[in-house]
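Predict the 3D structure for this chain.
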Amino acid sequence: MNFDVSTVRPAEPSPHSLPTAPSGQIAPHDVPTAVVGADCAAVIVAGGSGSRFGGECPKQYQTLLGQPVLRHTVRTFLSHPAVDRVIVVIRAEDRALYDEAVAGFALLPPVTGGVTRQESVHCGLEALDAPPPRLVLIHDAARPLVDAATISAVIAKLAEVPAALAAIPITDTVKRAPGGLCRETVDRTDLWRAATPQGFRFAEILAAHRQFADAALTDDAALAERAGLPIAVVRSNPDNLKITMSEDLPRCAAILAAALPDIRTGQGFDVHRFAPGDHVVLCGVSVPHSARLDGHSDADVALHALTDAILGALAEGDIGSHFPPSDPQWRGADSALFLRHAVQRVTARGGLIAHVDVTIICERPKVGPHRPAMITRLAELLGIAADRVSVKGTTTERLGFTGREEGIAAQATATIRLPG
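Done. Predicted structure below.
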């Protein structure tokens, strides 16, 4: 198939992108000297349909411990201090799934891929060519368990050779079985299972893609072989598996959960009084009412309580220490900004939000009719599945200030998981 590079165009930038990226899975002083200042970009290939996985949603957007597979993968590369920029190659029809999966991450605009993996990688490389990086890592979106040490090892090897790939040595006995019948035992000496990331000096792998655009090879190391580039093998983290079949997802979840053994719970509480108005904002949802809530921001009492719960689980103070009410820039602010900040603090420490529970305390308005919308909005803001979000409403049986309908209170708990 002929490949016209003139058709390579970056997709539109995500409207959810924020100017900050998570950090922290590997400290700069732990990075090999050959890796520091590498001028390295990463191309994450997420353009497959996942036909072998099954289901309506491609595997890279399936939920893994409350977050899309792609989000786990991208976070690892954004967190690595030697990776300067990250670009994701996607299918055009998956743009909404992509935007949701990477909300809040500082990424280059995504690129629409081609029919084959090779074409998709080529699209990503062409989008990086102005200005070009010195090195590039190419990684499968469906490998969310790649670790920082493997990334560092691949980058470091590029100081010696123009190409390097992460791989896992084959330790099992290998059989050749045409037609399902065992015919031969294959010598496993020097046999490796190729994985990703595969790293290259950028100019040389781009030239290889341009020269052998019709080769239809299954990975970029094979393309480098065709171009005559020496390729080093770097031992990968053995858990760096590729999600291919549906049964791979729970296995991947078990490995990932075991790597986040520090389970913490935080709680938050907030209250706001009523003031003249015609609606209140609860859990990011506008609810019609005969009054509004009075506060320095939009007074979303539920988001304030939840933000405090997450910050409490992190032992990082409260919402007022991060967003002082005396600061005029937060007057009338959307409280979603505060919650996103708390989520980013979890992400920055390599963790994830496992579950949240919010209780709204008031006589009116009634929470029940708006609960589904509130759950959906919280799941979106937190970047987790809706079945990990609980929203409840209760009253104080006409007792106290909430019983007298003078205001609304909210309490929240948040459970997070962090690396040990």
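The two ends are 49 Å apart (CA to CA).
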